[in-house]
Amino acid sequence: MQTGLADSIRNTPEGREAEAILRKCVHCGFCTATCPTYQVLGDDLDSPRGRIYLMKRALEGAAVTDKTRLHLDRCLTCRACETTCPSGVRYGRLVDIGRGLVEAKTRRGPLERAKRALLAWALPRTRLFGAALRAGQLFGVAPATRAAKAWPAPRHRRKMLVLAGCVQPALAPSINAAAARLLDRAGISLIEAGGGGCCGALRFHLNYQEDGRDDMRALIDAWWPAVSSGEVETLVMTASGCGATVKEYGHHLSRDPRYAEKAARISSLTRDLCEVITPDMVPAGRSRGTIAFQSPCTLQHGQQLRGKVEALLSKAGYTLTPVDDAHLCCGSAGTYSLLQPAISRELRSRKLAALGTPDAIATANIGCLTHLQDGTERPVRHWIELLDVQ
Ligand code: SF4
Ligand code: SF4
After folding, report:
1. CA-based nearest residue to 242, from 194, 298, 190, 288
2. 27 alpha carbon to ligand 1 midpoint, in Å?
């Protein structure tokens, strides 16, 4: 695609990156077929190709309006379009740049600004989120917390660090504990580093990009002693949304002279839990019932990991049921379900219909888990909890 970026951005690092991405897009439109928002709304400007066109115009210096921002806001950042694109267009990188530009050139209404600011302030604060959750549980308006089984004390030479996360410790401490128990049986001690918080995805994707980078720096600081001393061999992510983000720390902080090197090292050591748990660590089980696996976008598109969780669940004795249109987002997408509730609910209904009627639904991300559970009576679990059956 021919581009002529505005002078103000052409020679900046963002401008150069955006131009290289835009040049790859041949405008074929293959990506529209797999875009969830295009499927729901049917508007080309709510497809990857349409959004790329809007961002190209904005980067070329054309007027940016609230409508431009709306079409970018409606994007789930699910990156299904990246998986589909035959030209290798890195849409996720482009939309980060485009959103930053459009946010700076437009002004949201006061209510919307307040809502986004509140989310950006409150969600990454684990203690505050936990207190709000407990208050909600008292009044019966918040999901119950699933109690964790015992976390084995560190006893092995091999150690891995796990991200505690921001909302997951309050909603489902059972997930990291299940991972620790399974890895302990395989000869690996899993430890959480104190002082860490949100991976940065929440604020970054709310377009508080610099605040998101601050969260990334804080987490690097919390992890660095264990990483630099060689105490831990790997950083394990039990939420695929966090994993997709931490694997990109090297990119997000590449222009920060103090953190670039550390960020790249952190990213290179980061693995999703399904890359760490191998089939030989899972005892073969007898028939344990039917499971539909909802593969989060951050796992299948963001990290390009497919089939690993399904193989582990099969080995453990679960029968995987087929899922139609498994590439489509469930509508959770970080804070999307709170900011675009109508589209989010529609996508959830479609996803739950596609998941069919198994005994339980498995997933790999706390956001998808709570979002789906909110729409069904069927149990929704992180896959590691289904493997921790001893
Ligand atoms: S992003 Fe890829 S699939 Fe979509 S229009 Fe451009 S080249 Fe085609
Ligand atoms: S990231 Fe997802 S919602 Fe956004 S344009 Fe691509 S496919 Fe559509």
Report:
1. 298
2. 5
